[in-house]
Amino acid sequence: MLTVMDVETLQTAVASDDPALGLRAVVALRRLADRLEAQHVARARLLGWSWEQVGDALGTSRQAAHKKHGK
User: Per-residue pLDDT tens for 2-58?
Assistant: First the structure.
């Protein structure tokens, strides 16, 4: 299972004609985006943001934001 790609490997994979490399790059980018989203949602909540504000910033509803990130 792919965990992390370095930047050069990711750049090569994205530009590759090989679907296997390209799809691994997609997985790596998706995981990175998920981690970044979770970090920034947690920070926003620590700063007192409402679920409505978080949802608005993510382009979703407060309910969807809470369902995904609320504990």
Answer: 455 688 888 888 899 999 999 988 998 899 899 999 999 999 999 999 999 999 999
* Phi-psi domain of 16 (left: phi exceeds 0; alpha: psi -120 through 50; beta: other): beta
Residue 34, CA distances (Å) to 17, 18, 19, 38 in order:
26, 25, 22, 6
The domain tally of the chain equals: 1
pTM for the model stands at 0.81
Q: Are 62 and 54 in contact (CB under 8 A)?
A: yes
C-alpha 7/C-alpha 62 separation (Å) is 34
Alpha carbons 13 and 54: distance in angstroms, whole number:
32
Domain that holds residue 22: 7-69
17 lies in some domain: yes
